[in-house]
Amino acid sequence: MQRQGSIGGSAAIRIRATGGVLLVAHLAVVAWLMLRPLDVPWVTPPNLHPLAGIRADLALGWPQAARRIGEGLALLAPLGVLLPMAHGRLAVSPLASLIRTAAAGALVSLGIALLQTGVPGRVVDVDSLLLNTAGVIAAHLVFVPVGRARLRRRERRQPDEGTEARSVTVQEELSQGRTPTIPRVGIAP
């Protein structure tokens, strides 16, 4: 018996597997991009003041600021789609899904920032954490509700092949055989 609200049958396996593979591939590319040492003559101090780096980017002019801010937004944005895709549930609260995905994106971004402290030429920037999380949230809001609605419509149109053939009760699914018993031993007089 399938979980309530999960995608049924082989479609679920394909979607989860594809999401998992793409998630691992994306994280590998991000790790390669962000954790490589940089050969620079000097290193700027870490930015621990929220929005200070974004203000500095805006002071450079709109084309340069748009490129830098866009890079920050786009780096982890695919996680906003890949995390729910790897999870594979259709009937889930949109707010709960958004919060889980945003929290996971923020934790991945924080992990990258912490790992960068040991990489030569890389410094911690709290604005990259904010931009990466905002990118994850934006991608989730744009793509996930539409994708889930499309998958729910497709599931309603073509029911799973195996659902009518065999009906399994919850008790049958949860049962794993007889419960082992320990023989009672009386207390000696």
From TrEMBL:
It comes from Streptomyces yokosukanensis. Residues 24-144 form the VanZ-like domain. Keywords: Membrane, Transmembrane, Transmembrane helix. Pfam families: VanZ. Residues 154-189 are annotated as: Disordered. This is VanZ-like domain-containing protein. Residues 166-179 have a biased composition (Polar residues). The chain crosses the membrane at residues 12-35, 69-86, 98-117, 129-147.
